[in-house]
Amino acid sequence: MTAPADSTALTGRPEAVAAALPGLIGRVAARYAGASRYSRGFVPRKLRHDPATAAILARAAAVGGFGAVTDLGCGRGQLTLLLLEAGLARRAVGLDLLAGQVAEAAAAAAGLPARFLAGDLARPEVQAALPGADTVMLIDVLYLLPPAAQLALLRRAMSMADRRLVLRVFDPECGWRSRFGRGMERVNALLRGEPRARVAPLPLGALEAVLDEGGFAVTRQPCWGGLPLPNVLLLAEKRA
């Protein structure tokens, strides 16, 4: 198994991320050689085509690395492992509801300072047991929860984060992109055998107000690339 990259390779050099990405994605994909056939295809495809990949790595490089990372809703863990392979995270913990994906993430993390846990983020007792970190990530998670649960999880994530939060959220006020995004969620729900999509995105202003009250300075960054989706990164840095 490959060792993680030199920790100084991208630190402070966000402009170097694009050149480094293909090699890093190849390293991460190789870690899933023992995973299911679907996951072996999904991991490199997701990392190559999701605009969040390059955006989040560039942010990590710009701030000197993310330090200790907790990834809430980590899925198969590929983004977490990419940060470690890039030398832009010191250690990581990932949590996700789907035990099968968590098991694949744990196997792929062999030799890296990472651990992955299965649990329901909507449950208060799970939230209470979550570890603190320099950086807490919530990527495509909040809008899948009821509004009250979104705010509870966001506040818990704020209490865990020593330096920053990185969130990708669904902007419900993004015109045709929002309408298209809701349609895609309805299609995905039908494919999963669910009667309707369970999507309740809060306005970005409401999320930003909670972060601001908690002492975080927030910036917005569109994160849809060439896709017709309403995805936005909220990058929240704790004020001094």
Question: What does this 3D model show about the protein?
Answer:
The protein has 240 residues and is α/β, with parallel strands linked by helices. Helices cover 42% and strands 20% of the residues. It has nine helices and seven strands. The chain has helices spanning 17-30, 37-49, 51-62, 78-85, 99-108, 124-128, 147-160, 176-191, 204-213; strands spanning 68-72, 91-96, 114-118, 133-139, 161-170, 216-222, 231-238. The protein has a seven-stranded mixed β-sheet with strand order 3-2-1-4-5-7-6, sandwiched between helices. The relative contact order is 0.13. The model has no long low-confidence stretch (mean pLDDT 92).
Distance from first to last alpha carbon: 40 Å
Total number of helical segments?
Answer: 9
How is the biggest beta sheet arranged?
7 strands, mixed
Shape: globular
Instruction: Tally the beta strands.
Output: 7
Report the order of strands and helices.
HHHEHEHEHEHEHHEE
